[in-house]
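Residues and backbone
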Amino acid sequence: MVRSSNTHTQGYKEWALRNHWSEDLRCDCDAPATFSISKTVDNPWRKFRGCPNYQVILRLQKNVAFLWLDPPLPNTYYKETIWKFHMDLEEANNNKAFTMEVLKLSEEAKNNKEFQVDILNLLKVELLMMVMLLVVVTVMGFMVHNVMVKAL
């Protein structure tokens, strides 16, 4: 057991050295660099260390601590594939959050008669608007038809 634990620790240390993880990376603001993952089109999901105050430091035009931990993706195909995966994941998370909110509201609606009445009133108004639109479209259709018949 001890042997495999040492091997794991040694492997981590080699990874940390290879990726400059243990370096004391600081910029002009003297804040230590933090670990982040890029979520940009040019560098999707690429890991890096950088100053947590980089936007402020860039505006002041000072030296910013920044170091990529991953190599760049080899070509645009990989970038586009990873970006598409990222966007699909974002959409899934947004859909999940929306679904959870709808479920929460539906649970509240089950227990709240006033809320149910409000929803029914909104649906009635929506239905009335749709009927009015249908009437307007029908009347306009007859008017156009009559004009066309008279023109012939």
Remarks:
- The chain has three domains: 1-72, 73-111, 119-152.
- The radius of gyration is 30 Å.
